[in-house]
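Q: What would this complex look like in 3D?
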Amino acid sequence: MILKTDKLVKRFGGLIAVNEVSIGVEEGSITLLIGPNGCGKTTFVNTVSGYYKPDGGKVYFMGEDVTGSPLHKMYEKGFVRTFQIPSPFLQLSVLENLLLAARNNPGESFTKHLLKSSWKNYEMEAVDRAVQIMKILGLESYWDKEPASLDAGALKLIEIGRALMSGAKMVVLDEPIAGVNPKLAHNIFSHIVKLRDEMKLTFLIIEHRLDIALKYVDFVYAMHQGRIIASGTPDEIARNEQVRMVYIGG
Ligand SMILES: Nc1ncnc2c1ncn2[C@@H]1O[C@H](COP(=O)(O)OP(=O)(O)OP(=O)(O)O)[C@@H](O)[C@H]1O
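A: Here is my prediction, written as structure tokens for the whole assembly.
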């Protein structure tokens, strides 16, 4: 398991938004977190990623106890939420946007990289990686285009590509297909699957559109009122009575 939580708790005053949530995310998997509005999904992810301090329980990332680690520490360890990556620069190309998201950009620490050769090596490696990522995401033919000229699906893929350039090992996506048409939504999920298969990347995804998402993910956790009420394969979750009750309202 790349990520594990053990009885994680987050309270807001008297409200227990995350109530002893224990989950495990397999490395190289796509894991989905579902549940009705207000059930605690965002608060759970915020508590894991260091945006909130937990009121109880533990978080383990890559075998290390990271309970209460701040957001930037989790990011350094490779646990990345796409909002941590600055928004794309609309006047720059797709390639330039990917390059700017690369971590340890020598431009950031001038004195460490006075030698031109280290700049060159760094730049070549970064360009190679960006090209590899653009190929997997099907963005290579747009490499010199400005993001603003592309569709919503491509923008989402650029966002994921930039998370990858930043050295992410696990990416958390908050409703990656919200507001995009079904064709683009399937396209986004197909590329997430490719990243899992070709780069061994792990995803934790919050998504409401189960008709689409369940076709692509490996494992699902269902939350209701701060607790995990079911977990299993997409098939098991689609057949789960309690999950159906919560979603359809009995
Ligand atoms: N900062 C906060 N202060 C107080 N209460 C909060 C705060 N953030 C969330 N809550 C409450 O915690 C509960 C869980 O909210 P959360 O946003 O985590 O749910 P969610 O499952 O992500 O919902 P959605 O699908 O609508 O995004 C809700 O009752 C919400 O009102």
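A: To summarize the key features: Residues 12, 15, 17, 35, 37-43 surround adenosine-5'-triphosphate (CB under 6 Å). Residues 88-166 form one domain.
Q: Very helpful, thank you.
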